[in-house]
Design a protein that fits this description.
Layout lengths: L1 H18 L5 H13 L15 E6 L18 H7 L4 E3 L8 E3 L9 E3 L5 E2 L10 E7 L27 H4 L18 H9 L11 H7 L3 H15 L23 E5 L2 E7 L5 H4 L10 H7 L21 E7 L3 E6 L6 E2 L6 H5 L9 E2 L4 E6 L3 H10 L12 H11 L1 H10 L2 E6 L2 E7 L12 H17 L2 H7 L5 E3 L24 E4 L2 E4 L2 H10 L15 E6 L5 H15 L4 E6 L2 H9 L5 E7 L6 H4 L8 H4 L10 H10 L6 H17 L2 E13 L3 E2 L15 E2 L1 H11 L5 H40 L1
Parallel strand pairs: 1-13, 19-20, 19-21
Antiparallel strand pairs: 2-3, 4-5, 4-6, 6-8, 7-8, 9-10, 10-13, 11-12, 14-22, 15-21, 15-22, 16-22, 17-18, 23-24
């Protein structure tokens, strides 16, 4: 350090020597003042706090797919659901979730026909229904966001549909093209979008499901594969540029435009859940012009595609795309503006989420997503106010911050003073511990006697595994204790009511629902043949295996220790078998697991989307379905086959109640908990409501930028003393350098005088 200072001082001496002048203290003070005045720790350009711009973050990498045919990941939804408009959406505030029209003019009920095309009544038995026909009116006057794919010349010809690579040049954004255009949304755009699911050009994750239900789509997929092969016959397999695959050339029986603004979709049989698929971006319109535009030579090499530059009719459009760094959405100037909802829950009214009733959305002009690779700086930026919302697609921040407020008085004081809003609710997801039905000990059993013993073992374990305690010990992963497979918010769920508790694991005492005692669990264990955790026939201790889909780490040790203790309450030894997630999935597919923990995030708000997780024909180890427990019960399976075709109503409720009762008795799962969905919002972000189903939330957010700018100035006052200290240090070193220079000058001058005097004598 000493050598470094000496070197620096030497450099200053040389600099002072060159300018041959002393330092003006007044000038130095002026420079210091200017430096202090310009001090600002904001990561954004000056004036950003006052702009109508919402700042948030994303982690890891940019979204892989923004093409609505391909997009199915949570981290893609902050963009796709702001840019595209599916036929339907979900009411922003109402719970349980209610479908509302988006691009469609109304939510329609299907018409049923038999195999001869004859109309059937609404209550016709499902086995008589050959097709469900949806005739969906499309809103008039809906315009696409500006894009060069729509640009035309004076004669009406497309300007940019016949580009050569040399004409494309280095353009890497639609905004590099001088001309843009638009056009009105039509029913044909939805027909085109449905056809695109048969593509071989990009990922189409729901083609398998859609081809089961959309009339003719399975055959259409084979046709498109053949036609695409012809188009690419002369191209090498690795070629990025592929000729335009124009789906307009081949009709699809299950999707057609009756006129410019009426879409008909024909669904095979009765499938009530189809209405929920129409609220996902898989059913967002795709203009053929965009497909043709991006299919041109050189586009792929320049990163121009629907996966990076979507084309939609929604409230926002992609304005800036910097891979793995920054994405900016700006207000679509062609968006018509939809009114903010006027209905909601009592909590919405109390928390001010109905104050903007009827006002045109969106309220925010610009959405900025910057990458944050580390959790600590991201948290710091949020607490400083430089992130208005931590992340769009992560519904865990509110709960995590609530816990920190409870654990730290300083943290609690900070968040309270800053007025940060932490909203929390239970949403459509579940976390459970499952028992493999194929396992001889915890599974179904081969004989009636063994089935009874195994059931009592599972029931005893379900009592002993105390999920209330889990929520207290692990609040970051917490939720509301589940008594069955259905969270609140879906038709048929009785979660949170006196009729909804699990009588196997809980009972009512003095009007309160409480977990059954450990003595009751031990009694069931003894009846199962394992008194005090030992096999009554052999005297050997009962050892069960817990398969974990992650390697054991210090972070997971506390969780695993807690799990082992739950079994130890009954004298049962739990062997932890931890592997990586890929190995765990392989083990489950092969049926080699015994006890495991897993979870589910709903695709749509219907009881069927949870109850199918225990449907026998969906057994993962047998049929590669989503029934990871491989549970099978003949009565339950019959009821499920009936349920999937039922509309909401008393009859459906009765079927659901019976199915849940069967599951509670059989105990294929220890029901676990329904995780919290929680959000964190600064006080100047209005109308924030966390949800895993509603993904088009940006258009409802509203900013008080005056409050934000004032708060940022108060919370991030510059600390001047480090600059003053540095300035004083530099001043001292310059002064010292000047002093050294003057000493050198005097030392050089004195010998010269002495020499002249000597010669004079």
């Amino acid at each position: 350090m000493t050598k470094w200072l000496q070197s620096l001082q030497g450099g200053l001496v040389e600099a002072v020597d060159r300018i041959r002048a002393g330092v003006c203290p007044a000038a130095l003070a002026c420079l210091i003042g200017l430096g202090l005045a310009g001090c600002d720790n904001s990561p954004y350009p000056k004036g950003s706090a006052e702009s109508n711009t919402l700042y948030t973050a994303f982690n890891e990498r940019s979204p892989r797919y923004l093409d609505p045919t391909s997009s199915y990941s949570s981290n893609e939804t902050p963009y796709t659901y702001q840019i595209y408009e599916p036929l339907y959406g979900y009411h922003y505030l109402k719970r349980p979730y209610v479908l509302t029209p988006k691009a469609a003019a109304s939510v329609v009920q299907p018409k049923y026909v038999d195999k001869n095309g004859k109309s059937l009544p609404e209550d016709a038995p499902a086995d008589q229904i050959a097709e469900s026909v949806y005739d969906i009116p499309i809103k008039h006057g809906v315009l696409y966001a500006p894009h060069p794919a729509f640009a035309k010349d004076a004669s009406g010809a497309y300007l940019y549909h016949h580009l050569k690579p040399s004409q494309l040049g280095d353009k890497r954004s639609p905004w590099d093209f001088p001309q843009v255009g638009t056009r009105e949304l039509t029913a044909e755009d939805f027909v085109y979008a449905i056809k695109r699911h048969a593509t071989t050009r990009t990922a189409a994750p729901v083609f398998g499901i859609f081809s089961e239900y959309v009339a003719g789509l399975a055959d259409y997929g084979r046709l498109i594969k053949s036609e695409d092969k012809k188009l690419r016959a002369s191209l090498p397999p690795t070629a990025k540029d592929k000729p335009f695959l124009d789906f307009r050339r081949w009709p699809l029986a299950g999707a057609q435009a009756l006129d410019s603004h009426t879409l008909r979709i024909r669904i095979i049989g009765k499938y009530p859940q189809w209405k929920y698929w129409m609220a996902m971006t898989f059913l967002a319109p795709v203009p053929w012009e965009a497909d043709a535009f991006y299919a041109q030579p050189g586009m792929a090499a320049n990163g121009l595609s629907l996966n990076t530059w979507p084309v939609g009719t929604g409230p926002y459009m992609m304005a800036e795309y910097v891979q793995d760094r920054r994405h900016v959405l700006k207000r679509n100037p062609n968006y018509r503006g939809e009114p903010y909802p006027c209905e909601g829950t009592a909590q919405d009214k109390a928390e001010g989420r109905l104050n903007d009733c009827g006002k045109k959305t969106p309220f925010v002009d610009t959405l900025v997503f910057n990458i944050e690779k580390e959790a600590v700086p991201q948290d710091a930026k949020f607490r400083q106010g430089y992130l208005d919302v931590p992340e769009f697609d992560q519904m865990s921040y509110g709960n995590a911050y609530k816990i920190q407020m409870e654990d730290s008085e300083a943290f609690n004081q900070e968040f309270t003073q800053k007025g940060i809003v932490l909203s929390r609710t239970v949403d459509l997801s579940s976390r459970y511990m499952g028992f493999n039905w194929l396992d001889p000990v915890v599974g179904q059993g081969d004989t009636p006697e063994q089935r009874l013993r195994n059931r009592k073992l599972r029931q005893a374990l379900s009592i002993a595994i105390d999920w209330d305690e889990y929520n207290r010990i692990f609040p970051k992963a917490a939720g509301e204790v589940a008594h069955g497979p259905l969270p609140g918010g879906v038709f048929g769920s009785r979660h949170g009511t006196n009729d909804g508790f699990n009588p196997v694991t809980h009972k009512v005492v003095n009007g309160q629902i409480v977990r059954r005692s450990l003595d009751e669990a031990k009694r069931l264990l003894a009846e199962a043949g394992y008194p005090d955790g030992r096999d009554a026939r052999t005297g050997k201790p009962l050892v069960l295996n817990y398969d974990v889909g992650a390697a054991a780490t210090p972070d997971s040790k506390a969780n695993l220790d807690w799990t082992a203790k739950q079994f130890a309450k009954l004298g049962i030894q739990l062997e932890i078998r931890a592997t990586d997630y890929n190995q765990f999935q392989d083990k489950v597919r092969r049926g080699k697991h015994q006890i495991f923990t897993w979870g589910w995030l709903a695709d749509y708000p219907d009881a069927e989307n949870f109850l199918f997780l225990l449907y026998g024909p969906n057994a993962k180890s047998v049929h590669d379905g989503e029934n990871a427990s491989n549970y099978q019960n003949d009565e339950y399976d019959r009821l499920y086959s009936q349920l999937r075709f039922m509309d909401d109503g008393p009859a459906k409720q009765a079927v659901i109640d019976r199915m849940v009762k069967i599951l509670q008795e059989d105990a294929p799962w220890s029901w676990g908990y329904f995780p919290y969905s929680s959000g964190a919002y600064h006080r100047w972000v209005h109308n924030g409501k966390p949800s895993i189903m509603v993904r088009d939330q940006a258009q409802y957010y509203k900013l008080d930028v005056t409050d934000r700018a004032r708060s940022l100035r108060e919370w991030n006052r510059p600390q001047y003393w480090p600059l003053v200290a540095v300035a004083l240090l530099v001043f001292g070193m310059v002064w010292g350098a000047a002093k050294i220079l003057r000493s050198r000058e005097r030392a050089t001058a004195l010998p010269a005088k002495s020499s002249n005097a000597f010669r004079g004598h």
